[in-house]
Amino acid sequence: MGAAVPRLRLLVAAIAIAALPVSALAAPADAHGGVSRPAAPKHLKASAGAGTATLSWSAPHTSKSARVNRYRVARALTAKGKWTVVAKKVKKRKYVAKGLAAKPYYFRVAAHNRKGWGKWSKAARVVPRTTTPSAPTNLRASRTQVPAADPAFPPTWSIVVTWTPPGWKGASAVDSYRVERQVKGATSWSAVATTTQLTYSTAQSLGEESTHYLYRVTAHNSHGFGTPTVVALPATPDGPTFTHLTPADGGFTVSWTAPGDNGGSPITGYQLTWQRLEWPSGDPDGSQVQQFVAPSASSYQVTGLVNGGGAVYEITLRAQNQYGASPYTQSYVIPGVPYGTTVTAVTPTRTSPSAVDVAVTWTAATGDGGSALLGYSLQLWDADDADATTPVASFKAGADATGHTFSALALVPGHQYAMYVTPYNANNSGDTDTGYTSEKDFTAP
């Protein structure tokens, strides 16, 4: 009975083997049997460091027999760029790339088992931090007037520049700061101090407040200087810009725009002056009148002046802030005269071997200066004759005219001619505009 049991077991085994498919009984397709290459690693992350990028990821799901035994890492400079393998024998699910610049990098990872290398993971982008410090923060510059110890001497300015440490110290601690200064608009910087403190101070002579300075501060560590930060030292403002200067009956209206640079301090007002000048000498003829205008103003009307008759007024305007006044903006006006005429064309046409017609057109005056426009004074001068004392031709056109033709003029071939058009009223002549011939060699008839 006992011997019959083993025989029965052998018989059952034989029947089971016979029932298996042929493919199950065949030899493995390769030396690794049913083992496949690894899937792509998952959850790849990249974090930035000082000239480094730290990668971490999750292992792909595999069977025990297909266990991952190492990883490789590839790097590229663009998402679709050329990939370079930078590590092939990474045992852990972490890798630190070193010696990187502060620019974008892309990384991907692949796993390896006894069957070979698997698929690449999705790429991770990272921008490493610099090894040098970032820019100092909260940079400020101030200017304070300090009286001299001896009243016989003028006061001075105390200049103080302050800042706070950079948000990023780099790969090592910040050990110093470099302070530089530049005159605004210059191309180079001058080093004025190296300090371990968070402040820099110096003295400046009275009068230098009109010079606009920039200061910049750069942090330093053992890897070098980092990114600078720049601040403007408060100063006097730039000058305002005249936009309109309009003559009126017995006065004028002046308009302006505020300075493009207020010197780092709010405009506190404008100083407007006007003074009558002798004509044509330009010497002062009467006292200068000064008017302070509110900082919000952009125009001012002046009345009570003399109309025409050579009554030319010099106008100056400057802006002010707590540190002083800007350079003057200067212009001239003749009250009560017309303005706004523009010469649009000066066209010569040769009508015979010895004669040339010259046609001139202009736009009507945009304002009469408070007295009715009487007409336009036209004068044609030889612009290439430096010794000329009289015009080649002249004419008085009516108030409604916008054009005139001078006929049969004996002009010099090769010379250029200037046409002056001046509107006038009962007070005096207004603003003159000038046009020039378009050709030096006049067209043959």
Q: How are the elements arranged and paired?
A:
Layout: H1 4-19, H2 22-25, E1 42-49, E2 52-58, E3 70-76, E4 84-90, E5 94-97, E6 105-113, E7 116-120, E8 124-126, E9 137-146, E10 156-164, E11 176-183, E12 190-195, E13 199-205, E14 213-221, E15 224-225, E16 229-232, E17 241-248, E18 251-257, E19 269-277, E20 289-293, E21 299-302, E22 312-321, E23 324-325, E24 329-333, E25 343-352, E26 355-362, E27 373-382, E28 393-398, E29 403-409, E30 417-425, E31 433-436
Antiparallel strand pairs: 1-2, 2-5, 3-4, 3-6, 6-7, 6-8, 9-10, 10-13, 11-12, 11-14, 14-15, 14-16, 17-18, 18-21, 19-20, 19-22, 22-23, 22-24, 25-26, 26-29, 27-28, 27-30, 30-31
Structural account:
With 445 residues, the protein is mainly beta. The protein has four domains: 42-126, Immunoglobulin-like, CATH 2.60.40.10; 137-232, Sandwich (Immunoglobulin-like), CATH 2.60.40; 241-333, Immunoglobulin-like, CATH 2.60.40; 343-436, Immunoglobulin-like (Sandwich), CATH 2.60.40.10. It has two helices and 31 strands. It has helices spanning 4-19, 22-25; strands at 42-49, 52-58, 70-76, 84-90, 94-97, 105-113, 116-120, 124-126, 137-146, 156-164, 176-183, 190-195, 199-205, 213-221, 224-225, 229-232, 241-248, 251-257, 269-277, 289-293, 299-302, 312-321, 324-325, 329-333, 343-352, 355-362, 373-382, 393-398, 403-409, 417-425, 433-436. The strands form eight sheets. Strands 3, 4, 6, 7 and 8 form a five-stranded antiparallel sheet that branches. The longest helix has 16 residues, at 4-19.
